[in-house]
């Protein structure tokens, strides 16, 4: 748990989750910004991800079109002895902006209530009773009620109307459905089911039986007061959340006790290797960078990461966050060059309803969503002086005021910034505020480009080869030695990002089991790298230039199918001159 802020609050959520490795019958139990609780019905303890392993997750958020894709680590897995398996998964990355979508959902989500069989008058009273407290969803039939409950986020079900038989049939039918869920591998219905608040007529003995069976949470009688409805719904939400959390903690405690017992009887295991994020950091230059990262991470100072595009600034930002003591709290990433000033200000600081056109609801902003955690501002050199002044105020005071708002909210956020340019030069050129620069410049880490650490290239290339084999479902079986030499000698103007793209292309084009060869590399890389190799070799300047010329002519002829005239146009040469030089190099013979 972080020393800076409480653990991210969990909220009950019962939705279907698709995992990879596959885990049959997988549902969410609760969710927070940092992790998710799952239940499933695997055929055995070896099916699906095990404790300590990575898992890919995909699920939809109720009452929205948002779909979340995330990767995480299984922190604990517990086999209950029956059909049910419970897992706790800690998120470590999201696809695109899905992490922000989830955080925004959790921040803005309100208590959800399903109301069934309500008359127009009852519906009007319920809307008034729950205004500002919960969101009611109305159903005219039992089928509609079942569909709304299947969303997975309804804390309560209000059963209304004047037809006793219809109301009781629905309640008893829900009990049967919950029992089926329990037998199929879900958690006990008393923990996950929406709390039933009964507002319809019923004989006293029938109500007593329903209470004794644990099917009814509150019975308010016909035409209850608005205050009674409001209090019952709020109590249902609190009780459901508490019971679900108690169930989760019971499983986790039981699992920890079993694990401690097993560890006391087992030999100590070897420590694990490095995480995926630290691949390609073995060179002396990157080891110096990592030493600086380890020194600064635990301390609450702003960090400025400077380096060319594609050098891995976001990767280092994630490592700083993980080592900072805030690792279990949000890391929010924003590219400052991707939005206009107005949109970026709204995205960072939030806005209130009506602040501008299309501002149809309050938006909390990324600083609020990152409260307790870390915010990473990439390409900060693209911000305007006006926005830089507002960033400086947040850095110095921690106070955030949304666009169009008057209320100020205090946040505790660790700020990491990155720039593709030398911010000191930007200050001297008058394009960046000096006061913000000196505030961000508390601790600057310069990241060397990939061409200055060629020893990292083969490790990165093999890692990307493994990743894209899995993602693209290919089976490329390594790289030839000349390809490794070519990759090591190439200047990599796009750095790690360019290397990643080259390996993705190679794996995609590879045949089953094929070794990555020159054939699978982009022509631009094949053209440049040999030239560098030849220039780096022994021999006179004349000999080296001859070898470079031969390679360029060979590549041009290959690209244009051996047609001399086309190759000459591509090289900007006279065809006669090119023919003479090609014959000298043994690359072309006239008819």
UniProtKB/TrEMBL annotation:
Q: Which SUPFAM superfamilies match?
A: Homeodomain-like (SSF46689), P-loop containing nucleoside triphosphate hydrolases (SSF52540)
Which InterPro entries does the UniProt entry name for this protein? AAA+_ATPase (IPR003593), AAA_lid_NorR (IPR058031), Homeodomain-like_sf (IPR009057), HTH_Fis (IPR002197), P-loop_NTPase (IPR027417), PilZ_domain (IPR009875), Sigma_54_int (IPR002078), Sigma_54_int_dom_ATP-bd_1 (IPR025662)
Instruction: Give the top-rank taxon of the lineage listed in the UniProt record for this protein.
Output: Bacteria
Note one Pfam family from the annotation: AAA_lid_14
Task: Give the GO biological process terms.
Answer: regulation of DNA-templated transcription
Keywords, sorted A to Z: ATP-binding, DNA-binding, Nucleotide-binding, Transcription, Transcription regulation
What are the Sigma-54 factor interaction domain coordinates in residue numbering?
279-508
What GO molecular functions are on record for this protein? ATP binding; cyclic-di-GMP binding; sequence-specific DNA binding
Q: Which Gene3D superfamilies match?
A: 1.10.8.60, Homeodomain-like (1.10.10.60), P-loop containing nucleotide triphosphate hydrolases (3.40.50.300), predicted glycosyltransferase like domains (2.40.10.220)
Name this protein carries in UniProt = AAA family ATPase
Q: Which organism is it from?
A: Myxococcus llanfairpwllgwyngyllgogerychwyrndrobwllllantysiliogogogochensis
């Amino acid at each position: 748990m972080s020393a800076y802020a409480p653990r991210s609050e969990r909220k009950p959520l019962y939705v279907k989750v698709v995992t990879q490795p596959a885990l049959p019958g997988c549902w969410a139990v609760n969710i927070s910004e940092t992790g998710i609780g799952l239940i499933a019905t695997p055929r055995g303890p070896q099916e699906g991800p095990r404790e300590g392993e990575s898992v890919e997750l995909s699920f939809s958020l109720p009452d929205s079109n948002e779909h979340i894709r995330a990767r995480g680590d299984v922190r604990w897995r517990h086999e209950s002895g029956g059909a049910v398996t419970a897992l706790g998964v800690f998120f470590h990355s999201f696809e695109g902006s899905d992490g922000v979508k989830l955080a925004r959902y959790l921040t803005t989500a309100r208590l959800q209530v399903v109301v069934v069989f309500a008359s127009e008058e009852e519906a009007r009273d319920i809307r008034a009773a729950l205004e500002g407290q919960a969101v009611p969803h109305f159903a005219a039939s039992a089928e509609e009620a079942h569909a709304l409950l299947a969303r997975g986020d309804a804390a309560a079900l209000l059963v209304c109307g004047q037809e006793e038989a219809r109301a009781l049939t629905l309640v008893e039918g829900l009990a049967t459905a919950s029992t089926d869920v329990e037998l199929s591998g879900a958690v006990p219905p008393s923990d996950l089911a929406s709390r039933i608040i009964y507002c319809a007529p019923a004989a006293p003995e029938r109500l007593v039986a329903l209470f004794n069976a644990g099917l009814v949470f509150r019975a308010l009688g016909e035409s209850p007061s608005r205050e009674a409805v409001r209090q019952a719904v709020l109590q249902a939400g609190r009780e459901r959340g508490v019971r679900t959390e108690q169930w989760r903690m019971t499983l986790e405690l039981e699992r920890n006790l079993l694990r401690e017992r097993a560890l006391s009887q087992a030999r100590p295991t070897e420590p694990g290797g490095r995480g995926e994020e630290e691949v390609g950091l073995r060179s002396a230059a990157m080891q110096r960078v990592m030493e600086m990262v380890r020194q600064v991470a635990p301390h609450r100072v702003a960090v400025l990461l400077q380096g060319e595009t594609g050098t891995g600034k976001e990767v280092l930002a994630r490592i700083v966050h993980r080592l900072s003591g805030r690792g279990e709290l949000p890391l929010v990433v924003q590219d400052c060059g991707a939005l206009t000033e107005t949109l970026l200000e709204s995205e960072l600081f939030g806005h209130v309803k009506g602040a501008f056109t299309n501002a149809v609801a309050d938006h909390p902003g990324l600083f609020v969503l990152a409260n307790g955690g870390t915010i990473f501002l990439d390409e900060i050199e693209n911000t305007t002086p006006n926005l830089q002044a507002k960033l400086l105020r947040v850095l110095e005071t921690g106070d955030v005021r949304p666009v169009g708002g008057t209320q100020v909210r205090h946040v505790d956020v660790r700020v990491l910034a990155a720039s593709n340019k030398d911010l000191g030069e930007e200050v001297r050129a008058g394009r960046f505020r000096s006061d913000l620069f000196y505030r961000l410049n508390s601790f600057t880490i310069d990241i060397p480009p990939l061409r200055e650490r060629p020893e990292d290239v083969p490790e990165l290339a093999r890692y990307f080869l493994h990743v894209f084999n899995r993602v693209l479902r290919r089976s490329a079986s390594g790289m030839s030695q000349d390809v490794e030499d070519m990759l090591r000698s190439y200047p990599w103007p796009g750095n790690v990002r360019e290397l990643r793209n080259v390996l993705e292309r190679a794996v995609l084009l590879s045949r089953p089991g094929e070794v990555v060869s020159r054939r699978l590399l982009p022509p631009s890389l094949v053209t440049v790298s040999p030239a560098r190799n030849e220039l780096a070799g022994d021999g006179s300047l004349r000999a080296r230039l001859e070898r470079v010329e031969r390679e360029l002519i060979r590549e041009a002829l290959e690209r244009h199918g051996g047609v001399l005239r086309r190759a000459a146009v591509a090289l900007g040469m006279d065809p006669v001159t090119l023919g003479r030089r090609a014959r000298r190099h043994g690359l072309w013979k006239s008819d």
